[in-house]
Every structure is written in C-alpha cells, then in structure tokens.
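Worked Example 4.2. Consider the chain below.
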Amino acid sequence: MLGTAKQHFGDDIQRGRDLLAHARTLPAGRLQGDILRATWMMAVGACDAYFSDAYADLIARTLRAKDLQPSVNLPDRLNNLKVPVIAVIRGSSSWRWRMAARELIEDENVLSLEKIKQLFNHFFRKTHKIISQETIEGWLLHPHAKTRLFGITRTNYRALTAPDKAKAKKAALDKFGECFTEIFQRRHDCIHNCERPKMALLPITDTTVEKRIQDIEFLVNRCHEAFLSEFPEYLRALGFNGATRARACN
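Applying the procedure from the previous section yields the following structure tokens:
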C-alpha cells in the first residue's frame, strides 16, 4: 500500500538532491542560484506528487474494498464518483478504480497543509487527524524533528508541565504551518514570477535549500506512516471485514 507513491517520492527527492550537489560545484552567481531554485521546485514537486498519488491510491483501495464487499455503504463522496466509460468497458477492476480516483485529484495540487488535511482527514479517526494538535506531539518528539519546524526542542518540551505542553503543542502546530506556507509559497514565486515577488530577486543558499529538502522529507515520511496506520482502521470503521481489509491493503 502506497509503495509506488513513496518510491516515486524517493526518486524525485533524489533528483532534487542531485541538482543541489551540482549547484555546489558552481561558483556563486546567477546560474548557481537558479539551479538552487530548480532544486527547491523539484523538492516541492516531489511532495505534491506524493500526496496526489497517495490520495488516488487510498481512494482506489476503498473502491476495491467495496467491489469485494458490496454490502458496505461508502460515503457520498465516493458513491457519487463518476467512472470513465472506457475504464468500465476495458479496464481491470484495479485499474478502473484507480482511474476513478484520479478524477478526484486530477485538477488539483496538494501544496498546503490545509489541503492535505482536507483530503486525508477523511481516512482518519476523529482523535487521530493528520497534522492536528492531538497528534503533533508524536511529530515534535520524533528523532528527526528539527527545532526550526516546531519552535521548541524535544528536551524543552518534555520538561514542560501538562498545561504548558498543551500551549506548546498549539504553538508548535502554528510554527509548523508557517514553515510549510513559506516553503510552498517560495515554490510558487519561483514558477510564477521567477522569484521576483516584488522587484528584486530573492537570495538563496545551498544550506537553506538542503534544510527545505529535509523538511519536506519529514512531512512526507510522517504522513506516510500515519496513512499506513490509519487506513486499515478507516476500512474497519466502514464495516469491511478482515479478509476484505487484507486484500484492499495488500
């Protein structure tokens, strides 16, 4: 489950790292700066592609489960999904559902945390929503977590009292959102105005780009883990039996 989405993300983020390595062989100047900007765009593009592929994968698996166990009712969003005629006539069951899932995501990008939550919280239990105050603690305390993403170190967070931890989680969630708003917005600026949001070209360094790659990997890896954990629970809550869940998640 989600193996293709994750593999493609790994391949694409490595393409970004290769661009970064090449940029570091060049003298400081316009060409190096533009290759660093291309690296930033590649990394954010890898993120966008992962979430698009992951969403299509989970939708397709849900529809596959329905195909295996027709008595289970699905949410209206899925029940009302239009399947292309050519997919129904010619496609295998698996491909048919994947085509249908693609229709839901085809005209969108997934370049905001709010969009990620909007798409994927559908697959989560109420107390386990993605990127929420209830679940951010596990991310904040993760060994790969960076202080720049949450505004607090793991050590300092652990030392807080329970009421202060509640405040810190809210602040950490806000900080995390601000970081990714900046990451995604800079990608938009690179694409839409050659990174001249006003008049002057924004400065960029290889160190900053390397950190943004790390941040994007952190986001995708934590979400990937959460999807793998929650999707079987989602199918269970809908009423699918163990045999169906095993086949749909395989």
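The longest helix spans residues 30-68. The CA atoms of residues 100 and 153 lie 43 Å apart. Compare this with Example 4.1 before moving on.
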